[in-house]
Queue: 4 jobs
Job 1
Amino acid sequence: MWPALLLPHCQSDDVCRYGRTPSGHQRFLCKSCRRAFQLSFIYEASKPGTQGNIVMVPVSVIPPKR
């Protein structure tokens, strides 16, 4: 058991190890809601909360290719 880990989605502490990512980071599985998660990220865009900070550029601003 990992008593210090809480699943970000449901705040459950009933988690177990669930293998590793291709880059070697430990993955965990919540036994309550069956979601897999990891504690560390390689890419900044994968971190929780980053998606809300990405600004989409309107298509009308980009000039057409010639």
Note: Residues 1-42 form one domain.
Job 2
Amino acid sequence: MPSPVTLLHGATVAVDDGGRAGEGGDEEPPLVELFVTAIGACADAGEWRDALKLLRELEDAGDATDLAPYTEAARACRAGGEWARAISLLNRVRERGHSMRGTVGLYSQVIGACDDAGEAAKAVEIYALGVQDKVFTHWHAGEPFSLDLHMFSQATAVSAVRYVLQHEVGNFLPADLKIITGWGKHTVEGSVPTLLPRIERLLAQELSPPLPYEKQTSLHCDRDGCRLLENDGCLVVPVQELFRWLVDSRPFETYCINVPSARA
């Protein structure tokens, strides 16, 4: 079977012979669509070298104005275990001044590449960039001190929790910390949720020390009596456990408020 690169080059000849549709109109040039499809095929096959070669050709032609080819190239790097190259792709996009709107897919692939390779710290760094670029928002607008991760991929959700624990939790703990997972963005309807057990594994096995949690419960009453029901889409970290974890895992000055001395 011909490689994606061979198929693409054959197709581009036809496009060049027939001219580019969409010139003077609003349609995306077919050449870009062909490249995106071919780079995606490389990603499916784990051929990251071919994917980056095609992306470079698109850039050299001045047609890499859309984020789709970068996202597909990052996916190829992830499939090939090339997390550092995936980060380089994101840096190229940022350096070229692309709008950060619509880059959730690109960021998620880069974070996923780092997470797959066991580079948790790098994944958190990339997530922090996404927060800075206003690509990600993790606090629930309607529930205080609640992380809303239900639209995140597993790797992005894990990085979000790590980021919050490292950078946003400390001086003020107003209540129990809720981690809302829902069913997870990539969970197939009718199947077992995948995001919640991934966050459970992070809290119980990957953090040092482990961070105790429980399932959110609610009291349900009917004619047969009252009972507690577990919410399989929300984990709760009790405030006292969160404070204890901070004491055990972080330097005192990073989680304690410095109260100014009284003046006469």
Note: The longest helix spans residues 30-45.
Job 3
Amino acid sequence: MLENNDLPFLPVPDLQDTTQRYLRSVKPLVSSEAYQRTEVAVHEFLQPGGVGEELQRRLLSRAADISDKQGKGSWLEEWWNEYAYFSNRVSNCFYVNFYFGLQDDPRQPTQIQRAAVLTQAALNFRQELLDGSLTRDMARKTPLCMYQYRYLFNTCRYPATPRDYTIRHTPTPGEADYTHIAVACRGQFYIVETMVAKEGKDHHPPTHRMLTTDELALRFAHVQRLAATQTEVVPLGILTSDTRDQWAINRTEFLAVDPRNEQMLRQLETALFLVSLEDESPQTREEFSRACWHGATGINRYHDKCFQLLVFANARVGYCGEHSLSDGTTALRLCKYMLTQESDTALPPQSCEQEQELSLNHGSVTLLEWVTNDLVRQLVSQSQAYFYRQVAAHDIAVLEYDVYGKDNIKKLRCSPDAYVQMAIQLAYYRFHGTCRATYESAATKKYSRGRTETIRSVTEASRAWVEAMVSQASTPEDLAALCREAIAQHAQSTARCTDGFGVDRHLLGLKYCLADHEPTPALFVDPNYAATCHWNLSTSQISDECIEEYGWGEVVPDGYGIAYLVKDKSIHFNIAALCTMQAKNFALHLELAMYDMHELLGGKPLDRPADICMALPTFPRPTELTVPLDNSADAVELDSFSTQSSEASDTSYTISPTLNGRDIQQAADEMGSTSPESRKHERKPSCITLVDGEGDGKLGDSTSPSWIARYFGIPSLPFNRQSP
């Protein structure tokens, strides 16, 4: 079942169709002059016998080769993993992993009880995967790809330069299966074996059985007692929250201290998954969302593990998923399974938490006792500083819109997802005064090893509607017609993307078909190509009542990460962004848009809260903007900026817009030593200040979207990442 040999392969779209869809997606985002430049680039790309036809031929050949090897994946799989994840050097914690906040258990269990019940449920899910009894994922009557489930357990991502890799750990011949879990508590990691020996009867050899919930509770309580006695803790897990290049350096240094470190780290990396027993007790929605995203201290996490089950002191539960080889829909199936089993499982008695000794014949708990030195402790301290800077730089706004939900939207004869997408467009236009590139994730799991495609939410129809809403020059009837047209076009685009006929994955495949020595076609160096892939709005939805929170970080520094849950009676939004982007003010505009659209499309008038009946703030055009750096790369690009100040501190670096550029070596000199060896453990600036030196208000304008890419000596900002 996991091989999906019965599913079709991801198609290669028609070249003409893709480029026409691309042009339609560019037009509402750029000026008419800029659009004409893109038209010329596309026309050149499509010349008979030209580069476009040759790249399409190569891509079709690659797809045909793969289709001849049943069960070997799609033409996109390897490239997508590299582009979206393994070559991405930003922090897994803040910019790649996704999280869920799960429903509470109405029985009000303790932290230990809930950890035990949900852990056993996850183990049962794995057992169903192994024995083939897990029912197949379906979209109505269409079977979906199950391949991602093989990476839900015993899988770990590894930091490396220039790109990461992931290993799904399976035992070698003669080696026992990996059936242990890792447990994090107070910055320390413990190993708990989940299978115990069972004596055979009638001279049969002993077999193994899974731990009961009582036995798991006993072990989790023992972990807590052990952790409370540790005084000098080096919280190694915090290293995984750093940038990928920094984590790669730090991991190498850590392993070099003592051979035992590699042996112990391997136990963590081969574990089924990680259970984090957190000290926090998040109460509000924002507290819960932040706790699931990164936590208060970050020391109880290992962000390279396939997934982390987060159990807080007040028994609230979160799920944090490593995103490189699996998507949110796969994790959702596991979470629903765990919560369903939880409701049918008796809680272990609280007396388990008072037991002082573990029964010897049931095994014990093993602490991973790292061997460290001054350098490792210094690196841990630096990663902790990076973590706290990122936490301080970010804001989350949680909007629980419970006035109406999916049921009411359907009564208005609208697609609920397209409806919400247009609300996001209206909110952004009202707040920022413009339309910007918007990414919505569409699952392509009807194909073998399908992942996602990008729904480009901004269309000429959506732009016409939001402009008309703000100008107030149209009648309500005309506004409603414009809104319905925008919703209809988005729904059509969603259907095409789910079928594998989007824009972005096809263009990515064509670009990857270029040989290293070949010139890049004008289509891909056209500034509008970068501008329309600069995802100021990175959005995705999950629709299930069992999920209370859902989110991830923004993918560009002047953008928002918007996760939303479309439920029957409510719609939940989680908006993550840098503090400079004023996520809470954006949420006010989003709430207003939800009220306005309902009435515009014929819904009954709704009572509005006072805070959105007054004039809402608009986003100021800043004269300067300070954003945190990822501190990862020695080489970074400033396409439209150059250094303004010759003073380089260890906290900031200031640049201003210019088309002239500066001497590369001079910029490097201003950063300090350019020797790779001397720079090996040197922390680069923690933030960068962009200044509107021309006073024209174009700071952060997406006509120059590639703020930071590859310019020698200045660390990079995260950009062009994907949502779950």
Note: The first strand starts at residue 98 and ends at 102.
Job 4
Amino acid sequence: MRLLRLSMIIIIVFFSACSDMNQDPDSTTTTEQKAVETMAYTGITLYFYGVDAGFSRSIDHTAMCDEITEITENILKLRVNFEFAPPSEYKNQLAQRINSGDQVDVFDYNTVLDDLTMDIVSQYQLADLTDLLPDHYPIGAEMLKTDPEFINLYGIDGRLYLPPCYGGYRFSNLYTVVADRALLQATDTDEINNFSQFLKFYNKCKEKELLKNDYVFYMDVDLFIRLYMEHTGYHYLDFGIVYDSNNKEIIPMEYAPDFTDAYLLYQSMLTDGLLRELPADMNQPAVNSMDAVLKNRYPVYACLHSDFITNGLLGYSQFNDQYKVNLLNLDRSYYVSYKAKPQYCITDHGKAKEALEFLNLLHTHNQVYDLLRYGVNNVNFKLAGEKVEFKTNMKNVFNWRSSSIFIPDLERQFAYEHDDTFYFRTHNIVKVPYSLENYLESNRYIIENKELLEISKFRGIRSINPFWMDMENWELYSKIKAGLSVEDFVELIHDEDLDQYIEVYKNHLLPAK
């Protein structure tokens, strides 16, 4: 049953920042000084084996690794030898190297096994790290204090074999409307802070006949309905389940009258041709990409702010000159910055202490974080004061680790990012212990008006997208434009397990009667 299957997937670990990370930005210097004091090993080489995710993004990967090696040698007095394999070959080559006794001290965790079990400990000869964290990986020790369940998940008989690491997560219910400044100026629109203002902006553009050909609004049906219903007073929980604040009920979104209104409005705008779905054509530039910006491919579009911020568009002057970023419902939004998860494995080859010290450096050193997150300074990015600005020829900020780590205390503000939103995405941190029950308990603020920081988010059962319905993108939107009724649309998104999910929500969120 999908409910049982997904209950394991949707359990998510969130943890609060450790005590050092609740200080001002200068505290990172103190952390690094502590690292230097406890890490005095010399003459040792660590062999790091990782996944080559395709380093063709204007990033000089060799230079990046060389700089990390130099920093590690200066601070920890040990050298790191980096070696990478393509994803298709990584698993087999790693196993061969481990079994043959070849030198592998640290390796990437995420793609080791398709169906992960703790057999990984014996299969890949992992080291017992339990007693080493306080002295050699203090930031990891702090993670365990805030998330003690981690050792139960990644340990055997109370012994820890996988080090907790920061993982990029960026879940949020904060939405962004990106709009061409020329359209805003032509319609005398200063800001778009809610969905009503978005629709007003659309109607002004339509009345003035500013939209034509591909120069139109872009939004998929799922996001449109979600934003519409949020604006009319429903709280969108997930996968099409909403909390009706008026009747204090948890219901499928299609049971709400506003769902019909939202769908019919979207259908009308889509039929007019002035609003379109985001294209699924791989030949088209991706939304939130510099390729799209340079071609002005999407003059107005909406997306989750967490998705928007990932590609670092606010670091480009070209983007800022062309577009304005508008935030919807900032005053009642949350932003889950990161979570604890295993990122690396450490073998039991006699260098576990040094390997942990290296991981501690990755998690605490600002220059190393810059390399992992943005690339090489003055090559891929430059610092405008303390803010990150990207070079014009760097079309995408993803590199070796930029998409999988996010450490708020080391994160830099983008050159054209507003102070409020930078603070929001680095300080709005969810504190939810590990378990589905505690996730659901954290949603109680919907009824009891608890702080928004106590909300976490998981993705689960269904989504209003063509893939979920076994359709091609063009097929779904062709049906909508051809007059697909609300009833037929609801039938397309129906899921047999939905009622069970609603019961789970009701049991945890609604007061007992």
Note: The chain has two domains: 11-168+337-418, 220-277+435-509.
